[in-house]
Design goal:
four-stranded mixed β-sheet, mainly beta, 49 strands, 8 helices, 922 residues, 7% helix
């Protein structure tokens, strides 16, 4: 049966089942006894308490023990190991991205902006920087690890309860509700190379007993400092510690290898590559041996250098997280609660020195610093100009200025106050939330375009002419202050939310109590990002522009019903109405059915609809000028360089200039799941779910391929022989658009087995497997792109790819006061193409597809941890991540890291050790 027909059939079946379920309810109501009180079990995805954790919706529950056994020291690091996480995830190692310093999760590879992250069932203010200048997301690193009790992941996409914008699903991080006593915990981690040290300490203090004192108050404070690891610190770890991949068959023009000369084209060099005005060919200035230690084999005579000698592998990070909660009994039926959260974080990432030319954009359009009237040149009288009396185009990398340093300082706060209890037959909960994120992004080492042109052409500014390469020692500090000022951007987001909800049992049905819930919510979210200094005028070389301002105000109401019409049949349904101030509105339903023909077996299915209105970054005030990986179809037709071009043109970073679009339509989605839960014994559980999410009216930046094909590009002046406007691709002009749709389809398997080994203790095994069968994007022109099993979707953060399989296998052996755990993490290999059927995205120096077979290999790591309760209240723990010291495969395409894929970051860092102690005071 075609998928579209199957989808409609499921929807009709669920609707029919819900209607049929009404008849038994009405008939049974006349004979019903007093309603049975519902058991107090809360499950993410529902406001109705129940006795069975397994609902119609697939929910993955992650216990605190499962988090601890991985050795991960933050909730962000752990969540990014989930098999349901995919393309669009935001690791803290991507310091050069628009959202540097933040960490986000992307369920189903649909982007962090389509994954709703909750804290104790409620939203928080998003991170102060939108990823890719567009995707608003929740920063996971603000959540204190020691306060986390468990995590529940709603995997069926869209939620009529929490918000219709949860298109990819919901991650609900549940913190402690009450605590008495004092617990302190400290740990120290270090890599097998002796670097990347992390010192971490936390304390939890609580007092008051709800039943006796009628209150409970507790606080948790957590502080951590992690040292930077530089790419160069992995110099003996094959391709991880270098940008120079020539030893493995790649060309010197491959990304992360710089300084080459290709006749009429050249790359940035630490001594300077200068264009001969007469011949049109570039030549290198002298002194290369003072700046580069790698073998100089450039046939064009350039000064080769590699990006790894400057760049951070992982950033330096310092943070303090605070969480507190107070619960106060008001009466026999009501209690008040208050939650306070605060986080202060500083992240520092180091990148390569800036080039003195290039292409970039700002709201006024593209800037071409490579060629034409805007080119950066050595003036006729510049003392380092080898062609005196004539201006000469320059390609220069400012080693003398130093690396670019990006410092992100962020503060996050959250205040929640509410009342919950029982009013008659109703369980009610009402609360007000205010959350805020303030961020400053400060950058050093970037170059001001107007000052650079003056210092190289005229020398009339402070310090006179900017001397280059081996003569840079003649420059004054005044000159560097002039051409490379400190710049910064400020971001702020706020969220104000009021919600009220109530649930009750209406009557007893044959299968149990009929439960209903109603709720209403109002929220106002503001986002503002002021652009980096001077970027609003296009005056910072090579730095994209990102700014936005807007307010989103939403009023919503929802209703939910759970009807166990038979002991073996439970029907559920919910409907939500969202009204956005300004005109957008939507009604989004969700239906579910769970049938248990046997005590040990349940079959389940859901259907849900989603709705996401354009956010301020997409439709408000502002704009975006960033960078993306592209293949130049003019200079590299069919994946092969044209005469006069190079393999560089087949995989090149270009500027992409995008403007907000006030005419954007809202995204809509339809989600389906069909699955089973099988529990043949008390110690065995198996869940298997097939799922599909189709997102329509998808809001994307127009693809770079489309912009290139339409000729909406800026090119350099090194044209192919006899072909005008065929120079090196520098920039593309694109808009936010509603593309047609994306359909993602796959299978999830979760198996858990426990063994009682008598005197040998207990053994618990578990396995999670996520398989993606389809990740298809349909374009407006009727064409389609398939990303499953490829390196795409490269329009999503990091270009990390869409491997078809991710598997986690865990084992924990408990014996007395001691436990030992191991987790195997597997990520399948994938084709090194941007989409299925495309040409190979990378080439070796001889022109053959790269890597071998045009495929990124699979990657498997093992994490080991152990815990020992030395005596009452004292626990010693330790872990080894990447136990076998597996090296991440060489990935020549991804731009989130140098020569490896960010999904494989543990294979870049190498083996990592952590030891610690926890002490409970009673």
């Amino acid at each position: 049966m075609p998928h579209a027909i199957l989808s409609h059939a499921i929807a009709r079946a669920l609707f029919a089942a819900a209607v049929v379920g009404v008849a038994p309810v009405a008939a049974y109501a006349q004979d019903a006894a007093q309603p049975t009180t519902l058991d107090r079990v809360e499950v993410t995805g529902s406001n109705i308490s129940r006795g069975d954790m397994e609902t119609a919706s697939p929910v993955q529950v992650v216990t605190r023990a499962e988090i601890d056994r991985t050795g991960k020291t933050s909730i962000a690091e752990y969540l990014q190991t989930l098999t349901t996480d995919g393309a669009g995830t935001i690791p803290k190692t991507f310091g050069t991205g628009f959202a540097g310093g933040g960490s986000g999760i992307s369920l189903r590879g649909l982007g962090a902006g389509s994954t709703l992250v909750l804290l104790n069932g409620r939203r928080t203010a998003p991170y102060g920087l939108a990823d890719d200048g567009q995707k608003v997301f929740t920063d996971l690193s603000t959540i204190p690890m020691d306060a986390v009790e468990r995590v529940e992941v709603l995997k069926d996409g869209a939620s009529a309860i929490y918000g219709s914008d949860a298109i990819a699903g919901v991650v609900n991080i549940i913190l402690r509700k009450e605590f008495t006593g004092v617990t302190v915990r400290s740990s120290y981690g270090v890599s097998g190379e002796g670097d990347g040290q992390q010192a971490k300490a936390s304390a939890t203090f609580g007092f008051g007993n709800l039943s006796e004192d009628r209150y409970n108050v507790f606080f948790n404070i957590e502080a951590s400092q992690t040292d930077e690891i530089q790419v160069a610190d992995r110099g003996d770890r094959k391709w991880i510690g270098t940008g120079d991949a020539r030893r493995w068959g790649y060309s010197q023009t491959k990304r992360f290898m710089n300084g080459f000369i290709l006749g009429a084209d050249a790359d940035g060099s630490p001594v300077g590559n200068v264009k001969n005005p007469a011949s049109g060919q570039y030549v290198s200035l002298p002194g290369c041996d003072k700046f580069s230690t790698i073998a100089q084999t450039d046939p064009g005579g350039g000064c080769l250098w590699q990006a790894g000698q400057f760049t951070s592998l992982t950033p330096e990070e310092k943070y303090v997280n605070l969480f507190g909660r107070g619960t106060f009994v008001l009466s026999d039926n009501f209690e008040a609660y208050v939650e306070l959260g605060y986080s202060k974080k500083k992240n520092t990432f180091v990148n390569t020195p800036s080039d003195a030319s290039g292409a970039w954009g700002y709201p006024g359009g593209p800037v071409n610093g490579d060629s034409g009237d805007g080119a950066v040149v050595l003036g006729p009288n510049h003392p380092d100009n080898p062609f005196p009396g004539q201006s000469a185009n320059l390609r220069y990398t400012a080693f003398d200025v130093g690396p670019r340093v990006i410092r992100t300082d962020s503060e996050f706060s959250r205040v929640l106050a509410g009342v919950k209890g029982t009013a008659g037959a109703w369980d009610v909960d009402a609360a007000y939330l205010h959350s805020q994120s303030d961020l400053t992004n400060t950058r050093d080492g970037f170059l001001r375009y107007s000052a650079v042109r003056d210092a190289l052409t005229n020398g009339t500014g402070p310090g006179g002419y900017w001397r280059l390469g081996q003569n840079a020692n003649l420059n004054s500090q005044a000159l560097y202050d002039y051409i490379s000022p400190t710049i910064h951007a400020d971001g702020k987001t706020t969220l104000d939310l009021f919600d009220v909800k109530g649930s009750r049992s209406l009557m007893d049905l044959k299968g149990g109590a009929l439960g209903v819930a109603f709720g209403a919510e109002w929220r106002r979210q503001k986002a503002e990002l002021k652009p980096q200094t001077y970027t609003d005028a296009g005056d910072i070389i090579g730095l994209g522009y990102s700014a936005y301002e807007g307010t989103q105000e939403v009023a919503a109401g929802y209703a939910e019903i759970v009807a166990p019409v038979l002991e073996s049949l439970e029907l559920s349904g919910a409907v939500r109405y969202d009204s956005y101030k300004g005109g957008d509105s939507a009604t989004t339903p969700k239906f579910g059915v769970k049938w248990s023909p046997l005590k040990q077996l349940s079959l389940r299915a859901t259907y849900a609809e989603g709705f996401r209105a354009p956010n301020p970054a997409e439709s408000g005030k502002g704009g975006l000028a960033g960078f993306a990986a592209a293949a130049d179809s003019v200079r590299c037709p069919g994946g092969n360089p044209a005469p006069g071009a190079s393999v560089r043109d087949c995989d090149i970073q270009i500027a992409v200039i995008t403007s907000p679009n006030p005419d954007l339509k809202a995204e809509e989605s339809k989600s389906y799941t069909v699955g089973l839960v099988f529990e043949p014994t008390n110690s065995t559980t198996l869940t298997l779910d097939g799922w599909q999410i189709k997102r329509s009216n998808e809001i994307n930046v127009e693809t770079t391929d489309a912009a290139i094909a339409a000729g909406h590009v800026i090119r350099s002046d090194n044209n192919l022989a006899g072909q005008p406007n065929t120079g090196t691709l520098l920039a593309a002009l694109a808009n936010y658009v509603n593309s047609a749709s994306t359909t993602v389809r796959g299978i999830d398997l979760d198996v858990r087995q426990g063994f009682d080994l008598d005197s040998a203790g207990k053994l618990n095994l578990d396995l999670q497997w996520s398989h993606i069968t389809t990740f298809e994007r349909e374009e407006l022109d009727g064409s389609s792109l398939e990303f499953a099993g490829t390196h795409g979707n490269c329009d999503v953060t990091n270009c990390i790819g869409t491997p078809k399989d991710r598997i986690n296998f865990g084992a924990t052996w408990e014996l007395g006061n001691w436990s030992l755990s191991g987790v195997v993490n597997y990520i399948s290999g994938f084709k090194n193409v941007r989409s299925e059927g495309d040409v190979c995205a990378s080439r070796y120096a001889d022109g053959s597809p790269a890597p071998g077979g045009c495929r990124i290999p699979s990657f498997t790591t093992v994490d080991l941890s152990s815990r020992w309760k030395a005596k009452d209240g004292v626990e010693v723990f330790g872990s080894i991540q990447n136990l076998t010291d597996k090296i991440a495969p060489l990935d020549p395409l991804t731009y989130g890291a140098i020569n490896y894929n960010p999904m494989h970051s543990s294979g870049a860092i190498g083996r990592y050790f952590t030891v610690g102690v926890k002490y409970n005071f009673q």
